[in-house]
Design brief:
Blueprint lengths: L1 H44 L9 H7 L10 H12 L5 H5 L5 H36 L1 H17 L1
């Protein structure tokens, strides 16, 4: 019985440490999300725009839903939606009648794909694998300490 409790206890300690790595990753993603959202928002609306929604842009793109870059909050949601395949490239990176803005938005889009999907995805995997592979010895010590505290109560 004790051996099974030890294995489960070590696993719980490792999962706690992995949880904190996921929290760190979400913070990194949030920073990247804000940066890319501001870049797309600036391409779509200009640096000094205070527009909540641009009906002409929506009509020109043929979008009937909400404008993904209508404001910064919607833009952040669109960046998250892109991760699981629901965002539209046209709604985020195409600026009608502005080829230069569309070109910059396309470059930002490719950079977003490279940074977020490829780089940050691999960073998260590496963080979890590092904790899992290097944490067994420390997890055993921490589990023994917890077990001793539990027994002494």
């Amino acid at each position: 019985m004790h051996a099974h409790a030890q294995a489960v206890g070590q696993l719980v300690v490792l999962l706690e440490r992995c949880w904190w790595e996921v929290v760190k990753f979400v913070c990194l993603y949030f920073i990247a999300n804000i940066g890319f959202t501001l870049a797309f928002y600036t391409c779509a609306n200009g640096a000094t725009s205070a527009i909540i929604g641009d009906a002409d842009r929506m009509t020109a793109l043929g979008l009937s839903m909400w404008d993904p870059m209508g404001n910064i909050g919607y833009g952040m949601i669109s960046m998250v939606r892109f991760l699981y395949g629901e965002a539209s490239y046209e709604g985020i990176a195409v600026v009608p009648n502005h080829r230069v803005k569309t070109a910059f938005a396309t470059m930002y889009w490719l950079l977003y794909v490279a940074v977020v999907l490829l780089l940050l995805g691999n960073v998260m995997t590496a963080m979890i694998m590092y904790v899992y592979s290097n944490g067994w010895a420390d997890a055993e010590k921490k589990w023994r300490l917890r077990w001793a505290q539990y027994v002494l109560r």
